[in-house]
Design brief:
It contains three helices and three strands. By secondary structure, the protein is mainly α.
Length: 133
Amino acid sequence: MKLIVCMTMLLGSAAFAAPESGVWRCGADGRSYSDSPCPGGRPVVTDDSRNAEQRNEAREAVARDRTVARQLAQERREREAEWRTRGPGLIAIKPLEKPEAIKPREKKKREASPPAAPGTSSSAARASRSTKG
């Protein structure tokens, strides 16, 4: 009987302490985690139920992924180095030899209007020049 009581007390205290030392899901949206209890937080079960063979397979898969990632990163760095040696851009655009080669456009000069008759106002003069008569 004493054995049963002692076992119950040990199991009860272990179950009570497990969430305290585990992982807690916190925050209003539940997207943050903590290793200590937080207001409104829920304990998260983090037991690894996989057997040893499954854990080894997972480790090997991670190692393969790391190797492939390193190879891809090295290939990318080599391509970028090759692109740098080719120069700027993929389209061959020849730069101007001298910026002075660009000449400004010449403005066309307007023809001068014939002078108005003496004693004519400027607004009447414009109207008289636009009508041919």
